Amino acid sequence: TEKFYAYLKETDGVCTPHTTATEQGTDWAHHDDSLEPVVEIFQGYHTSYEAPGAPRTVDDKTDRVHGPYKPDGFVSLALDKGYRLGFQASSDHISTHVSYCCVLAEEFSRKGLIDAIKKRHTYAATDNIVMDVRMGALGMMGDEATTDKPGLDVVVLGTGPIDRVDVVRDGDVVHTETPGRDAAESRFHWDDPKPKDGDKASYYYVRVLQKDGQSAWASPIWVLSGK
Q1: Residue 27: which residues within 8 A CB-CB, separation 6 or more?
Q2: Distances (CA, A) of 21 to 4, 27, 133, 154, 221
Q3: What is the pTM of this model?
């Protein structure tokens, strides 16, 4: 790990943990936010590594594609440790165009994309779903913010009818938005009625589930109380 990190520092590169809750993954003992700014929350040829029991998530009954199931690699465990990880999805050698690393970049160039990934301005999707999640003027998905009144502005443009849009705070679903019966679009503002207080930042992210099973996950926003 140290040699790998040294190489990335030398080349000003980034990397992303892959199939984390499998034998090919990690137990999160080692991590560097600056070198691993994003994590593969969904792997196109296999499954999701979001959290135990989350939709489309790997478990001990999932067909083994990337080695044995290892629950110590779930992304939720890394977030609980305080790691700053944006979300991306990627395909595999024989599963193309079924998952996407979506990057909100200021410049459409290699440098612009890498800079945006380093800022975690990303989201993961299993289809051409558009997401934009912001905390007003305080920041967007992937950012850190300081406020006593966290609220989210959410825009989702789906590829089919949306089943639900979940807001997740520190691993728990704290709000669910349910669009109309056949709505493929969801736009809403949500204020946290009971934000957590304390010295540790809370993380908020948005998860989209369509009725056809397609999904998307916005990178978290980390919020520290201003008190």
Answers
A1: 70, 72, 73
A2: 21, 8, 26, 29, 23
A3: 0.94
